[in-house]
């Protein structure tokens, strides 16, 4: 397997003027610093990244007012020899990613500071796949995700072959691949915003998926053609990779799964239907 190194863009910015509920509950300035299983969210992600092979640098995208607080937890990870720097975020996620690439024509893996269930195997699977195409999108099947916890995800993309949930692990192989990042120009959360989904993926593609006329692989191929790129899907057997800490529901599920990995006795959460 190729050991071509990648750089990681770690998205940790909050919306300007909006206080994240998890950050507010924890009394911290940025959600990335909210504790889970005894450590800030971002530390769990960095623990995986800084102990993975073939990572050249980590660029944390963050609003300027939160940088001093986040920088305070980075020194132990910098001591491991991987360059870690803070990049000023933009109000638009695509512009933030563009800024973090610094115009470099090389492979980048993009993930988030709340992706606390990231694993070495998952990251390496994504890195290896990225080196053979222009861009990657990572997914796990509905069955794999719900096998983690019945409330691990509430929304799925239903293709002809199966239902899928997206995972917060994406890849861009060079500057031309930034074209596919335009999918996120208006933000993510496509399941709750159908208009945004149509503008990002194209009406005809949405119709094909909605009628279950294409498989997931064919749908990803069509997405690539929309941007003139070779886009491939990374399919994870580990459904936990589709769970990141977005709200109280996913926090409690992620805490339970992470606690199991760390040998902590955390009860399996019971989630209310409206949570």
From TrEMBL:
It comes from the Bacteria. One of its GO terms (molecular function) is nucleotidyltransferase activity. The keyword Magnesium applies. Residues 11-137 form the MobA-like NTP transferase domain. Keywords: Magnesium. The keyword Magnesium applies. It holds the Pfam family NTP_transf_3. This is MobA-like NTP transferase domain-containing protein. It comes from Erythrobacter longus.
